[in-house]
């Protein structure tokens, strides 16, 4: 293959332009229209960081069933830039940008800009990627850190020095402590140590021990310092209980895939790369291939399945799809035509990306009643009076804290039996909130809740399936 002798910055220009347009377009969506809610779970993550900034302690005061890294990252961003929804969403967007840069980096092996560009484009074709790149959720940031770990390892395989293998272990530890599901990347890394050529001066066993030791020490250190290691019942209890909930039995990855033709396209394009001779020669193909297969196997048996889980195998599949397409184009076209193709793909992406972002904005147009509800909460509770809410995003936008123990008022926690009427009645008695906000679904899940509220509360506003209750004035 003909070597591209252009300056390195010019070689990386097409994929860099696509990433830049993606980031700018998404930032415009998140700041200017500021959609009220991209996902209900946004409020859980925002409120946990908000409460930490007020002095509450994660896992001790704040109940949480997720690892701590993203909450600590949000807390730091809030301290630097203010506690707003836009800051939280831009934090997720920065993680998405990091993921795209990392994918471009390890796919540009041999300065192959066409493959890097195709990788970025395939990732942006993943179902829901624009939504997950802006929502304040932990799935995409965890995958972004795991992809960065793989990119660091690729640098080490190319002879970059021992610092890269250490960085890889640290990044995967941070990723797993954001969401444990990214540990599916570990088998691919270990196989890479066993099958891929070692950089000069390195032996397989010492490399495996060094990387594994860094990962294990990183996990223990992060979980220990943040206190998560001493509250494993919170981290795992809710998820283990949810596996036994009958209504979650049909929430499977297989059923979700049935309506996602773009995912089937990605997996179909990934298959030739996975079956090629490059599997034992290219770190990108081996690591992403084993990651994808491991993730698909795990999700096949995992219950309940949520749509953000689909990113776990889809992102490495997108990288493999780029390898397949690049191989085909390199075989069919001359180097000059490949360069023209790269710029053609770039121009197409520069038009398509803003259109996709605009469509995402239209799907989450703000509704006036939500702003009205936020104003009622701001006037009724105030910044020093906690409330109870099953959607804490309303309280967060009003600058009002919620009961730390009920910060994660999720359907999973209710359905798994860890949050019932008895516990809610106890918290209402302890916290004695001025206001309480519940959805119609929560009122159905907890049939005794209306009776609890009737004792001391009156219905203040009902809108959009939500009920805002206010404590009655005592004589």
Explain what this protein looks like in three dimensions.
- There is one protein chain.
- The chain has 475 residues and is mainly α.
- The protein has 2 domains: 8-34 and 65-363, no CATH class; 368-471.
- Helix content is 64%, strand content 4%.
- The protein is built from 23 helices and 4 strands.
- The protein has helices spanning 8-11, 13-31, 42-53, 69-81, 85-107, 113-124, 129-132, 139-157, 162-176, 186-195, 204-225, 232-242, 253-257, 261-275, 283-301, 311-332, 335-363, 368-380, 392-398, 411-415, 421-431, 440-445, 449-456; strands at residues 388-389, 435-439, 457-463, 466-471.
- A 4-stranded mixed β-sheet has the order 1-2-4-3.
- A hairpin with a 2-residue loop joins strand 3 and strand 4.
- Helix 2 runs parallel beside helix 17, helix 3 (42-53) packs across helix 19 (392-398) and helix 5 (85-107) packs antiparallel against helix 6 (113-124).
- The longest helix is centred in the C-terminal third of the chain and has 29 residues, at 335-363.
- It is globular, with a radius of gyration of 24 Å.
- The model is unreliable at 1-10 (pLDDT under 50).
Strand adjacency order, main sheet? 1-2-4-3
Strand content of the residues, in percent?
under 5%
Q: Approximately how much helix is present in the residues?
A: 55-70%
> Which regions have little confidence, pLDDT < 50, spanning 5+ residues?
1-10
The main sheet comes to:
4 strands, mixed
Which H/E pattern describes the elements?
HHHHHHHHHHHHHHHHHHEHHHEHHEE
